[in-house]
Amino acid sequence: MEWITPVRPGFGGFDEPYERANVVFLGMPLDVTSSYRSGYRFAPARIREASANLETYLTSAGLDVFERLNISDLGDLVVTPTDLKATGERISRAVKRVHGDGKMPVLLGGEHTLTYFALQAFKDVFVVQLDAHRDLRDEYLGDRLCHATVMRRVLDRLPPERLLQIGIRSCSKEEAEFARTKRIATYTSEQVIDNTPRIVAEARRLVGKARIYLTIDLDVLDPAFAPGVATPEPGGPSTVEILRLIRELGKLNVWAFDVVELVPPHDDGTAAFAAAKIIYELLAAIASSPK
Asked: Rounded distance, CA 57 to CA 108, Å?
């Protein structure tokens, strides 16, 4: 595939040929608009490394994901650090190609801005966002498209009733007013901690059978469980609490997902392993759920 650098071993180390795959990993080392910690470009490699050191059999689901899913890892997208537009177009084309071939794209980020470009490959999806932050600013530090504005730009193309935000515990006054005015469905981190089953039930009611794009910003986790992220936000759920949520969200009609905002230079491996575990649990839920 054009503008992709092959990486071996891929996620989990069990690469199926692309032609036989129904799940396809793409590394997205986008590292352009950071306003605090940078180093996203190292994230795909660290997540793959962690994945090779976790079991592929999930006790929570009673299955081995590589026995149930044919998984291929194409490698990493080539990023032009000085040209976000050109890199974004490559992201969109790569995801569109995988999706158009009838396969599920899984994106290893990389900064959250990549979600905006990835979503351009889909015509009709419901976005479920796990995140500590709303990312709904209209502009930030002079940028209209960056990690802090990504969901606002998504809503330039998507109606607000097609966005569900879970784990929120930080935003500006502008973002709070925008979300309230647009009536964006939101669940806070404390609601996740206090009553995950209720959130899952209401998410099922809200999204129904819609096609889901799930975007997981690792800062949804409390910094105690994911220290190596770009903008840590205290007061979040634990890894176990997020895994319980992920196992249920994976039973929805998920068509693609990304895991973003890991910054390895600030991580001791904890966040990278959390990312890999979240991916395995999500794949297990997808594999065990009839679509």
From this structure: 21
Please state the domain count of the chain: 1
Query: How far is Cα 35 from Cα 28, in angstroms, rounded to an integer?
Result: 19
DSSP codes of every residue in 85-111: HHHHHHHHHHHHHHHHTT-EEEEEES-
How confident is the model over 216-262, as pLDDT tens digits?
999 999 999 999 999 999 999 999 999 999 999 999 999 999 999 99
Instruction: Tell me the whole-structure pTM to 2 decimals.
Output: 0.96
Q: What is the CATH number of the domain that holds 279?
A: 3.40.800.10
36: amino acid identity, one letter: Y
Which string of DSSP letters, residue by residue, matches 219-251? GGS-TTT--SBSS--SS---HHHHHHHHHHHTT
Q: Provide CB contacts within 8 A for 110, sequence distance 6+.
A: 27, 28, 29, 30, 31, 40, 41, 43, 44, 258, 260
Q: What type of residue is 132?
A: A
35-51 pLDDT per residue, tens = 777 899 999 999 999 99
**23, β-bridge pairs:** 71, 104
Handedness of CA 275, 278, 282, 288 (dihedral sign): positive
Domain assignment of residue 18, given as a range: 4-288
Q: Give the H or E element holding residue 63.
A: strand 63-64
